[in-house]
Design goal:
The chain has 13 helices and twelve strands. The protein is α/β, with parallel strands linked by helices and 362 residues long. The radius of gyration is 20 Å and the shape is globular. Bound molecules: guanosine-5'-monophosphate (5GP) and manganese (II) ion.
Length: 362
């Protein structure tokens, strides 16, 4: 609240803060380079259900470091990121654990991008912690867990890709290293984590970075097209079904809820990423400022309960991360958070119904 009031009185504060951050990042970029030079087997991790920022920040680092780095993600990324340079070399832990485990055990440096808690990389979290080699964290979520030796945590910036850009272009790392491939990866994360520059994107520096990326060869319209205009017919129809049949509006609370069960998802041949962005859509309704989306994943063989993934979005000074954290074991940014629980979809809806009045500002 004090921070918010301060920004209202002194709107240049964020810009000043960003400039300070550049200096701060400068001081640490050289350390990161030293760690990387000393290492021979580097594993780059990013979070479960990888999004554009997770993909972009990890792949940009991979392109910069080269052969001695391997990107491992906990589970499959959406097919609309298949085109990203280096995506075909990413290892997916859920599918290739036997190949990943020795790499994790024998790594001599870990770089973690776009997550703040080892739990966000699933079972690999414990395995990473069991290896005592140095760990570098590059992230923009609040309150990182204390597990890394070098931490570049900047919740004020748009994306982890922005931090990677700043680290890579820092004076300590000259000559400039932004290749076409790196620029493409970084632009993708900047674009997706800001909803194509519709939120978290008011700092003028972001557009200076974009100008640099375009000079490095980025085709921004092609990237937009590759990520946002690649729906399958099933995905489009699933979106229609969700909005038409499954959206509940709570007008007094400016709130929308969409739920999709595993059976419903099956009907539309659900693929990872098919619900990406769905949670944002109700915010297009005038007077809806909060949106929640719940998706059921069927129980894995040998486990009794299905998993419910919950996404929260809001506009303006209406944080949802405390709600996500206290009721759904999650967290995230003030306007974009997530959580999960193991149980039925009905149970998740019950928790939602019991809690929304407490966490929503009318
Ligand atoms: P999404 O709704 O896209 O899955 O997640 C939005 C944001 O919420 C993510 O960028 C991440 O910051 C946060 N988030 C999502 N799921 C979780 C979770 O299970 N735990 C925590 N701590 N944060 C999450
Ligand atoms: Mn991010």
């Amino acid at each position: 609240m004090i921070f918010y009031a301060f920004i209202c009185i002194y709107p240049d504060f964020l810009v000043t803060l960003q400039r300070f951050l550049c200096v701060h990042i400068h001081a640490y970029a050289t350390h990161m380079k030293n760690y990387i030079e000393k290492a021979n087997h580097i594993v780059i991790f990013t979070h479960v259900a990888p999004d554009g920022d997770a993909m972009g920040s990890s792949l940009a680092l991979k392109h910069w470091i080269g052969k001695k780095a391997t990107v491992i993600v906990p589970n499959a990324f959406p097919a609309f990121f298949n085109w990203m340079p280096g995506a075909d070399q990413i290892l997916i832990y859920e599918k290739e654990a036997a190949k990943c485990d020795p790499l994790i055990a024998e790594a001599d440096l870990f770089i973690c991008t776009d997550f703040n808690d080892p739990k966000r990389i699933g079972p690999m979290g414990e395995k990473m912690l069991a290896n005592s080699c140095p760990k570098i964290l590059i992230d923009h979520h609040l309150n990182p867990m204390d597990f890394a030796d070098e931490v570049h945590s900047h919740p004020e910036v748009s994306s982890s890709c922005e931090i990677v850009y700043r680290l890579l272009t820092d004076e300590g790392l000259q000559p400039s290293v932004i290749s076409h491939q790196i620029a493409t990866c970084i632009y993708t994360g900047l674009m997706t984590d800001t909803g194509n520059f519709s939120y978290n994107s008011s700092a003028p520096e972001i557009y200076e970075i974009i100008a640099d990326l375009i000079r490095a060869g980025v085709h921004k319209d092609e990237i937009y097209n590759a990520v946002f205009n690649q729906y399958s017919t099933d995905r489009m129809r699933l979106t229609g079904y969700a909005l038409y049949r499954k959206m509940r509006i709570f007008p007094e609370y400016h709130l929308a809820l969409i739920t999709l069960s595993a059976d419903e998802l099956d009907q539309y041949h659900y693929q990872p990423g098919d619900c990406e962005g769905l949670v944002n859509m109700p915010l297009q309704i005038a007077d809806v400022h909060y949106s929640v989306f719940m998706r059921e994943e069927r129980a894995k063989p040998g486990t009794p309960k299905s998993r419910i993934r919950i996404s929260f979005r809001s506009q303006g000074d209406r944080p949802v991360n405390i709600w996500a954290n206290e009721v759904f074991h999650g967290g995230g940014h003030a306007n974009a958070s997530g959580g999960e629980l193991f149980g039925s979809l009905n149970y998740a809806v019950k928790l939602f119904e019991e809690s929304y009045k407490k966490y929503i500002k009318k």
